[in-house]
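Q: Could you predict the 3D structure of Polysaccharide pyruvyl transferase?
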Amino acid sequence: MTTTSLTSAAGPLAAPATDAHALTGKRRIAFASYVDENYLPGFLVLLRSLALSNPGVCEDFVVLYDDLRPGSVAKIRDLHPRIVLRRVNDSHYDSYKKGDQDNYLVRKAYFILDVFRLREYDTVITLDTDMVVLGDLGELLRLREGLAAVPQFFYGQHKLNSGLLVIQREYLSDEFCARLDRCGRTGDYELDKHDQGILNAVLDGDFVRLDPRYNFVKRRLSGDLPVPEDTAILHFTGRHKPWQGGEAGYGQAEDRWREFELSDADFHAAYLSKPGGLHHDLLVHYGTPHVARTGDVEVARKVAAAHISTGDYQDAVDILSSVRIPLDAAWPHEVLGHALMSVSRYDEAKAQLLLATAAPNRAATAYARLAQMAWVHGDNTEALRYATAGLTVDITHRSSRLWAQRASGLPAQEQGAAEEQLAHVAFYMDRQGNAGDKLLPESVRLAFGPETGSRRWHSVHAHRLFDEAALERVNSRRGLVIGGGGLFIPDTMPNGNSAWQWNVPDALLDRVDVPIAVYAVGFNAFDGQSYRAGRFRESLRLLVEKSSFFGLRNHGSIEKVRAMLPAHLHDKVRFQPCPTTVMRRLVDGWQDPLTRDDTILVNAAYDRAGLRFGHDYGYFLAQMAQAVRDLGELAEVKCVAHSLDDEKIAFDLRREHGISMPVIPMYDFDNDEIRDLYARTKLVIGMRGHAGMIPFGVGTPVISLISHPKMAYFLRDIERPEWGVSVHDRHLAARLVERSKDLLADHAATVADVHGRQQELWKVTEANAADLRTILGR
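A: Sure. Here are the predicted structure tokens for Polysaccharide pyruvyl transferase:
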């Protein structure tokens, strides 16, 4: 790593890749069908059946077509929120030697080969338009290797049955398409209405066999037999389709198809009445028109809650405000109150939440939110009163207990003169909170000098409303430092003033008249997570304009933030590594350990688990089980929990795979204990960003379990991307063990490499420190 690549204000010579999928390796999955006007009625039923049979599943659905009318496209889009239209190009089929191009079944057999030309996805599941989905497709979504299909029922087990294919990345390639094209042009295949001949000729029986229930052909039910209960996909092969009048002898099968021949209103109602987890996208897509049509308050609540879960707080306000909520409907009032407080409409939120406290089953949550709002406004007395009321309703209510602790905690008494202090905006973590976030504010302060207490620092909690009194206190200090983690994230503590973690209105930010230093902040959006772009961009632009120093903790964040700013502000955005990564240099009197414990510490994170794992959590857990077994031959493997939720991996490994790991409750540690534990172990395998950066900062080798782009950003900055493995990696266990062995084989050399990488980050930090001394006058 060259120093210039890190110290340049304009960033590295080549901007790093910031595509979240490329960095996390999260699998992109799509369904695909070939659709024409004649088979459109079947496809619409297929879409309804997919949603009703798998209400928690919503992946892209690629529609291959050549003659769909605009009205037909509109009907398709009404039934699925993630339709991807792809017009087929049939010119390359002209040279194929066989096949009647006017025959739909033959054309479909050709056109479906276009699926193999899709490059945006890692897994594609094809479904014929004469299919109906009756059961859970989770097994198909979890498949990760090969090309899978059901063997043919009539023509022998060495051939696959067309209609249902599960195609993985290695087949969605130019090389495989070339093989298909060569076969098609030479005519060296058999093609009839039952057989995707080109594909069978190329595969020659080399495919993963699926159970027939995933492509259960109608002909097996001749004689009006009932559809077996375990059928997942029923395929109406043959000339006579249910929407064309059907065929004698298959009445029970066609009755199953007609269960999904519904009007939009009936379909929406059927989906919204499904028990269990409904997918956010489908719930919003079907629930929004249902609420507009019916004024259904309970569905409006569900849709609003779905919006809240993805940070679309204004949409949640809008849909609940569009219906009349009865006074005694506590849950909708509570959800509306939550949405209103998330867009900083606090007075309206309070009114809604007070209504919700009337119902015993919602009162504790409503009181906790009222306590949160009071705390945000700096009223600890009111916050404690509401939190106590919540605990009175439910003594076990965790959120009420948290706000009671925050409200009753005694703030540190400031000892120094205001003119000698720096104000510090950060997220100050609670006791038993995330260990990494607990360490961050002190780490930022250490970068400005050894004194980290209230003599030199005035604390400003990022989540409290920055009001006139707070502005006056900040303006009486020598400067304002903003930093202590990934503050650029939309949903940790949402507000409508900035749309990131600091709850600061533009008008008050604009009146800060002391130097502002944004220090080592990260852009923390997950793969699949978005900001309310307009509000965040405006707040970000003002912050950059006002700042005398604007440093982000990795080049990935730099590129993301620059993309949101006008060009004239790009050069103000510079690289400032997270101070945890240079911890050895910051802690006064630091001594590297003379000996280390013979341990490997493993950390996993579970916040926003759907964004981290997708459909692959079971796979991840199985791979980690194998890795823990094999790593146990190298050292004792322990689970290190940054937060309470991080202990889940230990519970799941024991329950699912019979593996026990000791759990270290780092969430209970103070900062010195956190640093000491990480300095004394031999290796850390961590999923949280600071389960990588903190051990690295105290000189310990790390391997990152990448489920978030920020971890890949950090490893690229230190030019060690090989120290990261995606949680979706097909060979996760083997790679973890192999890389662990490499790092442990000559541990002293590995530690020396960590120190060398850290030295490069320290050079940047020192150069920035010189600029900050000029800016802040110290």
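Q: Anything worth pointing out?
A: The chain has 32 helices and 23 strands.
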